[in-house]
Amino acid sequence: MAHSPLDIDEMREPIEHRSVRRPRVLSGIAPSGSLTLGNYLGALRRFVDGQPSHQGFFFVADLHATTIEHDPARLRALTWETARLFFAAGLDSEQSTVFVQSHVPAHVELAYLLESTAYVGELSRMIQFKEKGGRPRTRASLFTYPCLMAADILLYEPRSVPVGGDQDQHVELCRDVATRFNRQYGETFVVPSLDKAGLASRVADLLDPRSKMSKSAPAGAPGVVRMLDTPDVIRRKINRAVTDSHAEVRYDPVSRPGVSNLLDVIAVVSDRSPDDLATDFASYADLKRSCIDHVVELLAPVQRRYAELAQDQGHLISLLDAGATQAVVAAGPVLARARDAVGLV
Ligand code: TRP
Question: What is the pLDDT of residues 195-239, one digit of tens each?
């Protein structure tokens, strides 16, 4: 694709000069399980809160959910569910670009060009690959996954990429690959910063409070509160949360992770400090009761909006179509520049 030199120069202006209004932020969530309270408090709710001050690109990373063995019907259902939850949580297509990753072919196209920039050595060092991959029947896409994630990011030139700590290494790789590409082929990509503070609050599994609450845990996992769990299910799960054998409620994440996790949840929901909160509760039963109330109340309006959206699939599809159209427009120039840089005609 050809560009007039003027276009290219304009595109190469630092992002700060181009988006005078709101700095860009981007993140994706893979539909590899029903979203959890952790996804809401750690990611979605922050994206929503950031909408007035940031120009957001938020997508359901469906292509990332095919890197391990998967069931097509489940992927389809989870993609719709996740998209509905994005909107139900308050992402607003007037303020942010919300879309499904695979609806924007530029992601796959740029990913391939980045596979031709990344090295086997650096991809082999990815912790997530070392943990989940490396077997003869490991899907090749699990190995190249960080290149797709780098493409997701670079196409939209975000200033920051808020991700959970387990994704920091992938964002670092994105920075390395973008820097190498720019050096080898000329300035093409804006290298994003690693927004380490991005998703600080992390919710732990209620039964295994030293691990994060994971959407990929088996359905019905008792330590994982899902955004769509009914109040009864939420109550049951929180009531069974692991605590410890101390008598008084105190915040101490290192030696008392279970109790501290419950305090953390109440703290983010009520915007108070967990240390401070601890003194409110006379017993663990008290603490759990309060945690249940906060979580049920927090999720109720989201679940209500979710139910409305579930009644109108046509509306959801039109919101996502509009998002994909915006994303295609935003991603086009970057992809064109990258194609040109490596010598595609
Ligand atoms: N890999 C991320 C995860 O598993 C999801 C994701 C895909 C993502 N592409 C991204 C996050 C780009 C941030 C930016 O959580």
Answer: 655 445 689 999 999 999 999 999 999 999 999 999 999 999 999
Residue 139 carries which side chain, given as an amino acid letter?
R
Q: Could you read off the pLDDT of 174-200 as tens digits, one per residue?
A: 999 999 999 999 999 999 987 655 445
The C-alpha torsion from 119 through 121 and 123 to 125, rounded to 10°, is -160
pTM of the model: 0.92
Looking at residue 29, the DSSP 8-state letter turns out to be E
CA of 343 to the centre of ligand 1 (A): 29
d(CA 308, CA 322): 19
Domain made up of 5-202+312-342: CATH architecture = 3-Layer(aba) Sandwich (3.40)
Q: Is it true that domain 231-309 has CATH number 1.20.1600.10?
A: no
Task: Verify whether residue 237 is a known catalytic residue.
Answer: no
| Catalytic pick among 132, 196, 237, 288 | 132
